[in-house]
Specification:
Layout (H helix, E strand, L loop, with lengths): L22 E5 L5 E6 H10 L3 E6 L6 E5 L1 H18 L5 E6 L5 H16 L3 E7 L8 H15 L3 E10 L2 E8 L3
Parallel strand pairs: 1-4, 5-6
Antiparallel strand pairs: 1-2, 3-4, 6-8, 7-8
């Protein structure tokens, strides 16, 4: 006797015969609550209406199933997910590296880049690596970073002020909320 593989559901949705529970809370195609019925009765009603039986709340006791057109249901779900994804803004952390002996023009260039990052809605991480003798003159580095933060004050807020992490001074700036 030859055995065939059971058809699989690619979307992980519980529909029709894939609903494993005996009793379910049924909502008909008009959105009215029918009550608690057996899965087989719910399947018969769905077949009679020429629609599918879809589980809409698998965590509920008993699970909630609805009679509806599954292809339309999937389409609307995908459309809703696309809309949510489109409205999301992914905030990135951009980095601006300074040095304690930075020139005024270089400072202004880094400042301009940081302002552009903030205008795009990203966070800015201001870092300064201290080498050799500069470790004993940390106040110079702090002064440069604090000047940078003061210049950014009108468009950014300070998430974490300048602090030492090993040999590196780090400050993080966020865009101001309108």
């Amino acid at each position: 006797m030859r055995r065939y593989a059971k058809p699989t559901n690619k979307n992980d949705d519980l529909i029709n015969e894939y609903i494993p529970h005996g009793n379910v809370r049924l909502i008909d195609e008009n959105g009215e609550n029918v009550g608690i019925v057996s899965r087989d009765v719910a399947l018969q009603r769905a077949e009679k209406a020429n629609l599918d039986l879809v589980c809409v709340a698998p965590e509920a006791k008993p699970i909630v199933v609805k009679i509806l057109d599954y292809s339309r249901y999937r389409y609307e779900q995908q459309k809703r997910l696309k809309e949510i994804k489109k409205n999301q803004k992914i905030v990135q952390l951009k980095e601006v590296q300074l040095s304690p002996t930075i020139g005024i023009h270089d400072f202004n260039t880094k400042l301009k880049n940081a302002k552009r990052f903030i205008a795009d809605g990203n966070k800015v991480k201001v870092t300064m690596r201290l080498y050799g003798r500069m470790m004993s003159r940390q106040e110079l580095g702090l002064e440069v970073i604090n000047n940078f933060i003061l210049e950014m004050e009108e468009i950014a807020t300070v998430e974490s002020s300048a602090k030492m992490e090993g040999r590196t001074l780090i400050a993080i700036l966020n865009p101001k909320k309108e």
